[in-house]
């Protein structure tokens, strides 16, 4: 069975790597033409699905072309666009949308030109939910996002634009079993369409590769004299059964007037005891104990600020009446 999956994957990658004309299945009647740097172009042929005796014509690049078959040479974006097949009375019978995909071009020529790998994905736990994001500086771009694992499709919401040109999409793998070992990769594809141009960006990962817990919560300091106990809790978004999904912690302690901070690594329980008199602050971050994925962001305790005593003001004496 594993061999069969491997063969299917190899065939899929092989088919997707062919240059020429191919259909973009996620958008109806949309086709992509792959054009290299040389700009030799691609001869594109479309067929209007009507009986042979039906009189039809195509509207292409502003021109009228009679017949069911349309042949056009595509070299650049101006050659792409909408192609419509009309009956003799002018009614539209069929249509095709043709987009240009330029490959082997510089980063500056791409629709998403901020990074070679613009899509970043992250999960807070193993529930099957993950979020992907990217930066899009151009406002006239349409994004379509899809994800799959093995032979099934993972549900993803429509991409939303956030602040600072950041786009996000939430996905939920309902077939994922958080208590089982992952055996198949998740593949996500971001499709970007800008007028007559097209490009896509792909990421392949396991959930465990992209898991980054939220920071620990409820940081507290307790103790008397020189015995100090630092305590914190697992993040609320982490898996409930901590014995099955344990975290390890790094603790960074800053003591008042004591110079450089102390870093305590790979603490296996949400508690640390130490000897210290005086004020201190501590910061904690978390990571999966058994898989070296990403550490959470740091979260820090706060100083206990002492209240300053204010002297009570004496009431001013009222002026004597003359």
From TrEMBL:
UniProt-annotated stretches for the region Disordered: 303-322
Any one GO MF annotation of this record: cytokine receptor activity
Gene Ontology cellular component list: extracellular space
Basic residues bias spans: 304-315
Occurrences of domain Interleukin-12 beta central (ranges): 119-193
Signal peptide location: 1-20
Gene3D superfamilies xref list: Immunoglobulins
SUPFAM superfamilies, sorted: Fibronectin type III (SSF49265)
Pfam family, one: IL12p40_C
Keywords for this protein: Cytokine, Disulfide bond, Glycoprotein, Immunoglobulin domain, Secreted, Signal
Superkingdom of origin: Eukaryota
Subunit and partners: Heterodimer with IL12A; disulfide-linked. The heterodimer is known as interleukin IL-12.
UniProt name for this protein: Interleukin-12 subunit beta
Native organism: Hymenochirus boettgeri
